[in-house]
Amino acid sequence: MHISDKRSPWQDEFNIPTLDDLRIDLPLPSAELFDTTRSFLLSNENILEEMRWYGDCWFWTISYYLKGENTDDDLPIAVIIPAPDNLQVAAPLDREFLEQLNTRRMKRAVRDGIDLAAEPYSTQWAVWPVNAKNLLEDLISLLKQRLSWLQGT
């Protein structure tokens, strides 16, 4: 097997990667955004982080759950999709949360990701490419609102 034939740890379903395995394939700007996203999500003491396989669409993700709710059936608060060529963050957004959300001041890229979780789409997953720090700041603000809403605060 040639080195170029070696499958990325991100795509290797049969071996659970480490965080370093996933981070090493990211270009430097994406790796920094990856670190910032993880730091924000882990700054809440009620959040647990775990590796989760999402199949041929997202491969290995770093998934974040509220403590006490990370069973196989529960949806995470958010996932980081460490695609080497397109770092992404995804979050399941239920209809009740979307209905109370004020999107007027949000950047177009954030609204576009939210639109994927709304009608007429049959999924509740919002997905955003994370390619700039200012977009990540807006995503973090949205995730803070989501976390507060989930915790009833």
Quick summary:
The chain is α+β, with helices and mostly antiparallel strands. Helix content is 37%, strand content 21%.
Word description of this protein:
The chain has helices at residues 19-24, 28-42, 55-58, 95-100, 108-115, 133-150, and strands at 47-53, 60-66, 78-83, 86-92, 125-129. By secondary structure, it is of the alpha+beta class. A five-stranded antiparallel beta sheet has the order 1-2-3-4-5. It is globular, with a radius of gyration of 16 Å.
Which SSEs are present, and which pair or pack?
Layout: H1 19-24, H2 28-42, E1 47-53, H3 55-58, E2 60-66, E3 78-83, E4 86-92, H4 95-100, H5 108-115, E5 125-129, H6 133-150
Antiparallel strand pairs: 1-2, 2-3, 3-4, 4-5
Structural class: alpha+beta
Helix content: 25-40%
Give the CA-based shape. globular
Order of strands in the sheet with the most strands?
1-2-3-4-5
Number of helices: 6
Radius of gyration: 16 Å
Element-level helix/strand string:
HHEHEEEHHEH
**Residue-averaged pLDDT:** 89
Distance between the termini: 54 Å
The low-pLDDT segments are none
* Number of beta-strand segments: 5
The main β sheet shows up as:
5 strands, antiparallel
Strand content: 15-25%
